[in-house]
């Protein structure tokens, strides 16, 4: 799969979300961070805003739920128009059941891991997912510095995906920029969430194109991609 760039509206102007979505219409997905001020120490937006965004843009919505009780709330984001819904395994009571419900409602099911959460205990769950998100910062705030110590975890996750022959997307979120995206791609990521690197640029659409070019070039030389 070609690398995908998902601009994060956490770094956008919340007073102009429709315009900010249109500014990156060349992106693969629009990443929507939902925070409840409980699972993470920040509060952002919820179902009504996702419904409005889904009407305002043709770019599919990738909703990342940094919330408590995702088993209860995640299905509502599919109904609101999200094409992909990510829940945190640390918050989910029944991750397999939840992933199956998200899929049954018509969206891609994704599971996120905080930096300190290892991937290995969840190896058997991977076939139930369409995407796995490796957080490369502590979730809760945009603009944080990329954690290089996550690169080995990305590599191990890619090895697990390859070992089982899965068509599983591997997303990274946190501190992804022109200076870090190539390392992520080399390690095995193929979906990249970029916030300030896109919306902090003078031309967000060009920033998306430049990041995609970097990711494609790094992927083409990556050992994991050459093995396929």
TrEMBL record:
Function (record text): Catalyzes the reversible epimerization of D-ribulose 5-phosphate to D-xylulose 5-phosphate.
EC number: 5.1.3.1
Keywords: Carbohydrate metabolism, Cobalt, Isomerase, Manganese, Metal-binding, Zinc
Cofactor(s) needed: a divalent metal cation; Co(2+); Mn(2+); Fe(2+)
One Pfam family here: Ribul_P_3_epim
Organism for this UniProt entry: Streptomyces pilosus
UniProt record similarity statement: Belongs to the ribulose-phosphate 3-epimerase family.
GO BP field: pentose catabolic process; pentose-phosphate shunt
HAMAP family registered for this protein in UniProt: RPE
Protein name per the record: Ribulose-phosphate 3-epimerase
Residues that bind a divalent metal cation: 31, 33, 64, 173
Cofactor note: Binds 1 divalent metal cation per subunit.
Reaction(s) catalysed (UniProt annotation): D-ribulose 5-phosphate = D-xylulose 5-phosphate
Pathway: Carbohydrate degradation
Enzyme class: isomerase
Binding site for substrate: 8, 64, 140-143, 173-175, 195-196
